Amino acid sequence: MEVDRPGEREWFAVQVKPQHERTVPYALGRLGFERYVPLCRAVRRWAEGFKELDVPVFAGFVFAACGATKPLPSRLCPLFTT
Questions:
Q1: Domain assignment of residue 67, yes or no
Q2: Across-strand partners of 62?
């Protein structure tokens, strides 16, 4: 059994604006945060036929790890939803 230690990083599900599941993790990565967006393969129909795309499993959510010493940056708040 693992014991939680104070000061360790924790994972959070951050709700983001629609269609921003790719831009927010990029911004968090540039700031040094660990982030994760689970993707799955989906087939979409377009006018010129079918296309396989990688789409987020949890649309509108990004997972980010942060600790007490390094909280999520407030300057990204316009990309987050409340």
A1: yes
A2: 14
